[in-house]
Write a sequence for this structure.
C-alpha cells in the first residue's frame, strides 16, 4: 500500500567516495601519486617538490590549492625559509630524527601551523586553503595556514538598512564575521567554537555566545542539534536553520537571521547564541522570539520615545498587512451595515461595474502583487524600471479604468503591500504574506466571525511554538511584567536594566545606571534664572 | 491520568475570570430582567456575595487534597465505584455544558453576525479550533488567555464607558419594587450561569503552582472583578434599554451596543461586544470540553486525554446541533432545569464531597493510629 | 452529504488513529477507535433523521422530581 510517509523516508546515505581515515604513507612519491589520483588531477592543485638542506637528502613537497592560498605567504615564509634561510643558518638537517623537530620548532616562520598524520586530514587541509608540507620518510606532515582568497569587503548590509547606527555588514568569510563580533565585544567571555558540518562541503559553523550570560542549557541544546545534522552540503545558514528549528510546519520563523553585526552583538549580550556559517553573510540567532522580529536595531540608537512610537506603528502595520484585504472582503460581503453610509454609497458605486465578487477581486489583485514583487526581486537590474511601469500604470490605473477591479481594492492592496514592507525582518513579512490568503478565505466564507476564528487559530499556534525551549510569545504569554520594558515600548537605556527573563536565567542584571538628572548646581542655576 | 502540565496562579485566575464572564455577559441581563425587573441589578450584586461563599467552598475543597484533581478526589472520598459514578455525572454535566455553549455561539452568530449561514457550519468551525486548542494542551491555552484577556476586558470596558451617556437612572426605580423572593431567584439564576460551573475549573487545581494564601486572594479578586463586570453590564443594559426591552431580547447587551452613538466612526460598537464575547466563550467552551475529556480518560484509565479529543469533538458537534430545538426552549430550559442541575453540581455535590473526604481522612487516621 | 460526512470522519479518524498507534498508545487507540465509531454512528443517525429529540428532555425528567421534592420540603 502506498504510504504518504514514504515520500519523506530517508534512504540509507550513500557511503561510497568517502576517503578512508588511514595514516599517511611515508614515501613522498607515493603520497603525491595518491593525492593526484584522488583529486582527479585537478588543475588547481599545485605540487611543488623541493629539497631543503645542503646535500639534498631531505626531499619535501608542498601541496596547495591555487586560488585559495596567498602565494606571497608561501613564497616568503615557506619556500624562502626552507630553501634559502635554512642554509644560511646552517641548521643541521641530516639526521632523520631531529630534522623534523628542527623544521617544526626553528625553521618554519609561518604564524599558524598544525601537524597531522591521516589522509583525510590531508585533503581537508589542502581543500580549505592550507599549504601542506610533506617530508619524505615521515608519516606526519605540516599544514600551514596560508588562506587568502578574493573576498568581498565589509559593506553596508543590503537586506537591513538603517539611518542611524553602524553600517557594517557581515561578509561571506566566517573569519571576518567573527572579527566583526570581537571588535564589538571585547570580553574574554565571548566564546566562539567552530565545527565543520557537511560531509562534502565541510562548511565551518561557529557557535558564539557569552559565557556566563547565555543559558548553558540553550548552548548545550544548540550543540546537540548541530551534532545531529548529517548531511552532505551546507551552502547557507538557511540549511542549518531548517535542520535545527523546533518546528518545521509553521509559517513563523523560530530562528532569527541577520546581516548586521550590531544585532548579533546585542543578541549575544542578551544571552542568545549566534550561529555563524561560512559562506554566507546571514548569521543565525537563537532563541528567537516573536517580538524580536519587530525590534529593529535602530530602535536602540534613536530616542526612546520615538523608538516606542515606531514600534507601535510596526505592530499596527503587521495587523494591517495581515487583515486589510480580509476585512475589506468581510465588510463588503457580509457587513455592509457596518460601513458608514456615505462610504458605502461611494464603495458600491465603484463596485458597480466590477464583474467579480469582492473575494475574487481581492485574490486577483493580491496574487498579481505577489507576482510583481517576486519579479522585482529576481529580474535583472536593467529591466527594473519596466516592471514599475507595468505594475503602477498597467495593473493599477488601467485595471481600474477598464472596470476589472474597483479603485478601493487598489488602495487596499497598496496598503497591504506597504505595510508588509515595514517589518524590519524579512521572515516575518513572508509569513504574513502567506497567512493573508488564509484570512481572505475565512473572511469570504464567515465574514468577521471567520477573521476572528483565524486570529484565535493564529494565536493558539503562536503560543504553542517554542524556540529552543523558550515560549515563542514570551514575555507576553507567559506574561512577564519585568520584561515589558522592551516589547511594545522601548524604555530609555537606563531603564533596560535587566536582560530578558526566559532567555537567560542566571545573569539577569544588565546595568546600574541612574536616570540622567541635571546636577544640583545646574538645577539651582535654573531656578535662579526663572 | 496524570496532570503533568503546570499553570501558575495568575493564569488560573485569568481563566477563572473569563469562565465567569463567558456566556453571562450576553445572556444573564435578559433573564435577570425577566425575573427581577428593575431590581435586576440588586440581584446581580447579591449574587456576588453568594458566589464568593461558593468559591471559598471550592477553594477549601481544593486545599483538602492539593495533589488530587477533582476526579481523583471523588475516588479517594467515595471509593472506586461510587467515585467513578460521581465522575461520570460531572463528565455528562460538562458535555451538556459544552454542547449548550457551542449551540449558543452558533445561534448568536447566525442571529446577529452572519445570518443565512447554517448552524452546523458555525458549530463545526468553532469546535475545530476548540479541538485544535485542546490538542495543544492546557499550557498553550492559558498562554492564549494571557494574550486575549486584556483585549476582552478592554473591549467590554469600552462598551461600559460609552454606554454611560445613554443611561437613564429612572429605569432602575423603584428601588425595592420587587418581592425579595423574586430577586433571590434571579440572583440564583445568575449564579447558576456564572459561578456554579466553576467547580469544573477546580479539576485543574492540582496543576496550579503554589496555590498558597496569596494565590487564593488573587483568585477571589479575579472572581470579584468578573462579577463586578457582569453587574455593571446588567445595570447598564437595564438603565439604557429598560427592563422590558432587556427581557425581550435574547442578547440585550448586543442590542445595547448597537444603540451607542458616541463618535461617528464608532457607531457600530456591537461588533466590539461580539468579538469580546466570542473570545471569552471560546475559553468557557474549552474548559467544559477539556474537563469532560479529562474525566473520560480518568474513567477509562487512559494515560492521556489527547487520543479521544477528536472523536469527542465530533460527538459534541452532533449534540450541539440537537441540544436546543430553538432559543425559546433554550431560555425555558435554562430557567427550569439548568438552575437546579447546576445547584446539584455546584453546591450539593461539593458539600457531599467535602463531607466524604473529611470522613475518609478521619477514618484513615484512626485506622493508622 | 451523508457520503461526504462519512468519508470526512473516516479520513480524520485514519490520520488521528495511525499517529496514536505509532506512538504505542495501544489502549488509548482502541478507546479512541470506539469513540470514533460512536461519533460516526451518531452523525449518521443525525443526518438520516430530520428531527431528533433533544437529550436535555431526559435530564429534565431526572432533575424535575428532585427539584419538586426539595421545594416541597422547603415549603414544609
Amino acid at each position: 500500500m502506498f504510504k504518504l510517509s514514504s515520500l519523506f523516508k530517508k534512504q540509507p546515505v550513500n557511503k561510497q567516495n568517502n576517503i578512508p581515515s588511514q595514516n599517511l604513507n611515508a614515501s613522498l612519491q607515493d603520497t603525491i601519486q595518491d593525492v593526484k589520483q584522488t583529486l582527479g588531477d585537478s588543475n588547481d592543485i599545485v605540487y611543488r617538490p623541493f629539497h631543503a638542506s645542503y646535500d639534498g637528502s631531505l626531499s619535501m613537497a608542498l601541496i596547495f590549492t591555487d586560488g585559495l592560498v596567498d602565494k606571497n605567504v608561501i613564497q616568503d615564509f615557506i619556500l624562502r625559509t626552507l630553501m634559502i634561510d635554512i642554509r644560511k643558518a646552517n641548521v643541521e638537517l641530516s639526521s632523520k630524527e631531529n630534522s623534523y623537530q628542527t623544521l617544526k620548532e626553528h625553521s618554519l616562520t609561518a604564524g599558524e601551523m598544525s601537524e597531522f598524520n591521516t589522509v583525510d586530514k590531508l585533503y581537508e587541509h589542502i581543500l580549505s586553503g592550507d599549504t601542506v608540507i610533506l617530508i619524505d620518510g615521515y608519516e606526519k606532515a605540516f599544514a600551514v595556514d596560508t588562506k587568502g582568497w578574493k573576498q568581498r569587503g565589509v559593506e553596508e548590509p543590503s537586506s537591513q538598512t538603517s539611518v542611524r547606527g553602524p553600517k557594517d555588514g557581515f561578509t561571506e568569510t566566517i573569519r571576518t564575521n567573527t572579527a566583526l563580533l570581537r571588535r564589538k565585544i571585547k570580553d574574554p567571555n565571548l566564546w566562539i567554537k567552530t565545527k565543520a558540518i557537511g560531509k562534502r562541503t565541510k562548511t565551518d559553523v561557529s557557535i558564539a555566545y557569552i559565557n556566563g550570560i547565555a543559558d548553558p542549557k540553550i548552548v548545550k541544546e544548540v550543540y546537540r542539534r548541530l551534532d545531529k545534522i548529517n548531511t552532505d552540503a551546507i551552502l547557507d545558514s538557511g540549511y542549518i536553520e531548517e535542520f535545527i528549528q523546533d518546528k518545521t510546519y509553521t509559517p513563523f520563523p523560530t530562528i532569527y537571521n541577520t546581516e548586521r553585526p550590531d544585532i548579533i552583538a546585542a543578541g549575544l549580550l542578551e544571552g542568545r547564541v549566534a550561529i555563524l556559517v561560512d559562506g554566507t553573510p546571514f548569521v543565525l540567532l537563537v532563541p528567537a522570539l516573536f517580538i524580536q522580529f519587530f525590534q529593529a536595531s535602530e530602535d536602540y540608537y534613536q530616542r526612546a520615545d520615538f523608538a516606542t512610537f515606531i514600534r507601535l506603528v510596526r505592530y499596527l502595520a503587521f495587523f494591517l498587512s495581515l487583515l486589510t484585504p480580509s476585512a475589506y472582503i468581510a465588510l463588503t460581503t457580509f457587513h455592509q451595515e457596518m460601513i458608514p453610509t456615505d462610504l458605502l454609497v461611494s464603495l458600491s458605486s465603484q463596485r458597480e461595474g466590477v464583474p467579480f465578487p469582492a473575494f475574487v477581486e481581492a485574490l486577483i489583485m493580491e496574487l498579481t502583487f505577489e507576482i510583481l514583487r517576486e519579479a522585482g526581486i529576481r529580474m535583472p537590474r536593467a529591466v527594473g524600471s519596466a516592471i514599475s511601469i507595468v505594475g503602477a500604470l498597467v495593473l493599477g490605473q488601467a485595471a481600474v479604468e477598464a472596470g476589472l477591479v474597483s479603485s478601493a481594492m487598489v488602495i487596499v492592496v497598496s496598503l497591504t503591500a506597504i505595510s508588509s514592507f515595514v517589518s524590519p525582518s524579512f521572515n516575518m513579512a513572508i509569513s504574513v504574506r502567506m497567512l493573508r490568503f488564509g484570512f481572505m478565505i475565512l473572511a469570504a466564507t464567515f465574514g468577521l466571525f471567520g477573521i476572528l476564528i483565524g486570529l484565535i487559530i493564529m494565536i493558539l499556534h503562536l503560543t504553542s511554538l517554542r524556540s529552543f525551549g523558550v515560549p515563542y510569545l514570551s514575555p507576553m504569554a507567559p506574561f512577564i511584567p519585568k520584561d515589558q520594558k522592551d516589547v511594545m515600548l522601548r524604555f530609555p537605556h537606563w531603564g533596560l536594566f535587566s536582560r530578558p527573563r526566559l532567555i537567560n536565567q542566571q545573569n539577569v542584571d544588565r546595568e546600574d545606571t541612574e536616570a540622567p538628572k541635571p546636577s544640583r548646581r545646574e538645577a539651582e542655576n535654573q531656578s535662579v534664572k526663572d | 491520568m496524570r496532570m503533568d502540565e503546570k499553570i501558575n496562579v495568575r493564569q488560573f485566575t485569568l481563566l477563572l475570570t473569563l469562565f465567569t464572564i463567558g456566556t453571562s455577559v450576553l445572556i444573564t441581563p435578559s433573564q435577570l430582567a425577566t425575573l427581577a425587573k428593575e431590581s435586576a441589578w440588586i440581584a446581580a450584586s447579591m449574587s456576588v456575595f453568594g458566589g464568593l461563599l461558593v468559591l471559598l467552598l471550592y477553594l477549601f475543597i481544593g486545599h483538602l487534597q492539593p495533589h488530587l484533581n477533582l476526579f481523583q478526589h471523588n475516588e479517594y472520598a467515595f471509593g472506586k465505584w461510587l467515585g467513578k459514578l460521581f465522575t461520570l455525572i460531572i463528565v455528562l454535566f460538562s458535555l451538556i455544558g459544552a454542547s449548550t455553549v457551542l449551540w449558543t455561539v452558533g445561534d448568536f452568530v447566525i442571529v446577529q453576525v452572519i445570518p443565512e449561514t447554517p448552524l452546523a457550519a458555525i458549530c463545526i468551525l468553532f469546535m475545530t479550533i476548540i479541538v485544535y486548542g485542546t490538542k495543544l494542551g492546557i499550557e498553550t491555552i492559558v498562554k492564549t488567555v494571557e494574550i486575549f484577556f486584556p483585549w476582552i476586558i478592554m473591549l467590554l470596558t469600552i462598551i461600559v464607558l460609552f454606554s454611560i451617556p445613554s443611561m437613564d437612572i429612572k429605569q432602575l426605580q423603584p428601588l425595592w419594587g420587587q418581592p425579595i423572593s423574586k430577586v433571590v431567584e434571579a440572583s440564583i439564576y445568575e449564579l447558576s450561569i456564572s459561578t456554579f460551573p466553576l467547580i469544573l475549573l477546580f479539576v485543574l487545581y492540582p496543576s496550579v503552582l503554589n496555590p498558597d494564601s496569596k494565590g487564593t486572594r488573587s483568585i477571589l479578586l479575579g472572581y470579584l472583578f468578573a462579577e463586578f463586570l457582569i453587574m455593571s453590564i446588567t445595570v447598564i443594559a437595564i438603565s439604557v434599554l429598560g427592563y422590558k426591552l432587556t427581557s425581550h431580547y435574547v442578547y440585550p447587551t448586543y442590542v445595547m451596543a448597537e444603540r451607542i452613538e458616541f463618535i461617528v466612526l464608532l457607531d457600530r460598537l456591537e461588533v466590539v461586544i461580539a468579538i469580546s464575547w466570542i473570545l471569552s466563550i471560546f475559553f468557557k467552551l474549552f474548559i467544559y470540553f477539556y474537563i469532560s475529556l479529562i474525566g473520560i480518560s480518568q474513567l477509562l484509565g487512559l494515560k492521556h486525554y489527547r487520543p479521544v479529543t477528536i472523536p469527542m469533538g465530533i460527538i459534541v458537534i452532533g449534540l450541539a446541533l440537537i441540544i436546543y430545538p430553538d432559543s425559546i426552549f433554550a431560555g425555558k430550559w435554562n430557567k427550569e432545569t439548568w438552575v437546579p442541575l447546576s445547584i446539584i453540581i455546584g453546591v450539593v455535590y461539593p458539600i457531599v464531597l467535602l463531607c466524604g473526604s473529611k470522613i475518609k481522612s478521619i477514618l484513615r487516621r484512626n485506622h493508622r493510629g | 452529504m451523508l457520503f461526504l460526512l462519512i468519508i470526512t470522519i473516516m479520513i480524520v479518524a485514519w490520520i488521528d488513529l495511525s499517529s496514536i498507534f505509532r506512538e504505542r498508545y495501544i489502549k488509548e487507540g482502541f478507546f479512541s477507535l470506539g469513540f470514533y465509531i460512536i461519533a460516526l454512528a451518531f452523525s449518521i443517525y443525525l443526518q438520516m433523521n430530520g428531527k431528533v429529540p433533544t437529550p436535555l428532555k431526559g435530564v429534565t425528567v431526572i432533575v424535575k422530581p428532585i427539584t419538586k421534592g426539595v421545594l416541597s420540603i422547603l415549603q414544609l
Summary: Residues 304-470 of chain A form one domain. Chain A touches chain B at residues 334-335, 337-338, 340, 446-450, 452-453, 456-457, 459-460, 463-464, 471, 473, 476-479 (CB under 8 Å). The CA atoms of residues 178 and 525 of chain A lie 50 Å apart. The two ends of chain A are 90 Å apart (CA to CA).
